[in-house]
Amino acid sequence: MFYSAGIFHRRSIKEIHALWKRGSTVPILKRLTRFGSMNLLVSSGVSVAYFSSIALLALAAVQPRSPDGQGDQSTYFDSVVLLTMFLLIGRYLESYSKARTADAISSLALLKPAEAYLLTASDEWSGSSVSSSEGLTAVPMTAKGAVAFKIENIPADMLELGDIVRVPHGSSPPADGMMVSGTSGVFDESSLTGESEPVRKETGDKVYVGTINRGDVVHVSVVDISGTTMLDNIMEVVREGQTRRAPMERIADIVTSYFVPVVTLLAISTWIIWLALGESGKLSADVLGNLSGGWPVWSLEFAIAVFVVACPCGIGLAAPTALLVGSGLAAKYGLLARGGGEAFQEASRLDIVVFDKTGTITTGKLQVSDVKYVTNSWNEETILGIIDEMEIVIGNEYWMQENSVQISLELRDLADSWKNEAKSVVFVAAQRDAQWEVLAIFGVADLIRPEASNVISLLIKAGIETWMISGDNEKTALAVAAAVGIPSSNVIAGVLPQEKAQRIQWLQRGRPVLPFTGTEMPSNHFVVGMVGDGINDAPALTSADVGIAIGSGSDVAISSASFILLSADLNGLLNLIDLSKAVIRRIKFNFLWAAIYNIAAIPIAAGVIYPAGRVRLDPVWASLAMALSSVSVISSSLLLKLYKPPKKT
Hints:
elongated, ATPase_P-type_domA, 47% helix, Calcium-transporting ATPase, cytoplasmic transduction domain A, 21 strands, Rossmann fold, 4 domains, P-type divalent copper transporter activity, 23 helices, transmembrane, seven-stranded mixed sheet, seven-stranded antiparallel sheet, metal-binding
């Protein structure tokens, strides 16, 4: 009673003290109508059973022995013991199940190698080839030739920046680093990005902890030590996201805050009703048997059962457990939920998805596809020769206008033709005799991601509007939009970073006024998701209800987002939306199940079905029912682990 159930008593006392301590600002009415938690319900039920048993034991001690010689069996000490046992078992299963929900994150931690093969310079090398079995290896590190290194096996946590480590075939780099030797390598990055295809790495490319070397032995220079690697950042982001609560979770808080006073009132009312029925003769006296204490004690069993079975543990676990499982699944499929429960809830009801153009719909890898030198006197050699001697201006048409550079009609026509081909146009101008003159014009093409068109098509089929926003010129933006299936009316081009945020807010308001038309439209809040990758997307990502950053993008964009797609593949967006809907559906189901469970169990515990066949819910079985309520909700959440991403067709 006092030791095993002490955890419930201590927490209940703290809750009551915090509510009624001197200086509390909580209004008196609120203290009487919203107080306590599940701990107070459990503590109350156990305490009532225990102290009523003490009273019954004292009462039995002063009463004459029964004529049949049988002792009185009216105490609840066994109920107290079994009740506490079931409650603690339920708490243990709850803790164990919560730990299981983080398996996907824990498995990421297991990907970190415990040891590293450190290469240190060796004075023993004479220039001849040395086999690796002797502990020495020759690595081509400089232009002058190979340098001898000795291999040492050390704990990975002892690595420092700049250390050179050996990564054999089939192993993982012990820290994030740059490849410094070996012609090339092939790494399996599926554990981080969800991409099943191995990625080829060349000297100078970055490799990450948790990825697997599927090629030949490579050597890596450490650039991020333990605690700052990409894998560490992923685990930290997921942990932070799991602590952020969804609006749905506030429902559980509100329900629980009113639950204790309501259940207390129900339990007292139950005791009074059964006591009144017994004392008034409505019930047969033979139901008492040899129970000492009469109708007051007999009625008390109903009240204790109500106290115990009414614990809203299932309601309190409905959202957190599903979100924990959802976060783990997201990490498994290359998604990081920085925004936690609120981000999942918003992503499940997206109305509009806005794409940045460069680096999101396109690959962001620009290539010069066309070039035209304006006059014969300005050729490539001439331009390169005067760059260090003359002030030049490089940029688009708007930047040329800002610097008072005159563009001929012929060049404008050429630029327009390139824009119609989804190419960006870059002008180069130099100042000659106080006059700015265009030297050359370049057409720059940015390849469209191969999956972009299919992803946008599936979003439209799902009833989600797709928009594109870009700082590029309107013709180029329209050409890209047409190529991937975004309507021309849903393209916003030529905007600055801060204007992107304003346009996101405009979409959230339901586009109350169409640009340049003044046409009024209904004003409703639309849930808007923004997908971007650059620093210039950060204001829009922050303003959107759901900011989604491409993992290959800038740190500023990633820190502004609710979700991070570790892979640049836009199919991850479809997985994100579908997983969010699955998580929210599971939360709603958990709430419904827990509510139905409690609504059905409380009347049974109160004795509603007792008159039909003298069937009552003993306090011990009430505690078991309460524990099963929590376990059933947790099991429901764990079923999310069976989730599979939708087919991309």
